[in-house]
Amino acid sequence: MNANGYASSYFGASLRVVLSGPVFLDSHRVRLSFVPNGPLIDGSAGTAFSVMLGDWAGDAIGNIPVGVYTVTAQYIQGSGSVPLRITTDSSGSYRASAMVHFTPDSSSCLIEPQASVYLQP
Fold first, then answer.
1. Other beta carbons less than 10 A from residue 66's beta carbon
2. Using one digit for the tens of pLDDT, what is the confidence trace for 39-58?
3. Contact call for residues 117 and 98 (beta carbons, < 8 A)
4. Which domains does the chain have, with CATH numbers?
5. pTM > 0.90: yes or no
6. Which helix (H) or strand (E) holds 41?
7. CA-to-CA distance for 32 and 22, rounded, in angstroms?
């Protein structure tokens, strides 16, 4: 787990992940992959990376370099994985990937870029 596991304890953006659907998903088996779509906020190219949701507390991933990403999710089972469907809108269409844009948090005095995704099998 990260230093304390809370997304708000790190610089960069945070992504809230909501596991939905009729089947229980263990967050320790959910891997999210991020591929930058263009330059990051600082102008750098950025690099693709993956994280395990269960490594973070409260189903929120932190320390994400601010940019626009194509995000995919997989459920790890044994030696393989099963793709999960993803959307950025709880009432939207679930697809194989989602484009995630981070926006400032308007609910606090802190300007923390954040976004949400919803996953289901």
1. 15
2. 988 889 999 999 999 998 88
3. yes
4. 7-120 (2.60.40)
5. no
6. none
7. 20
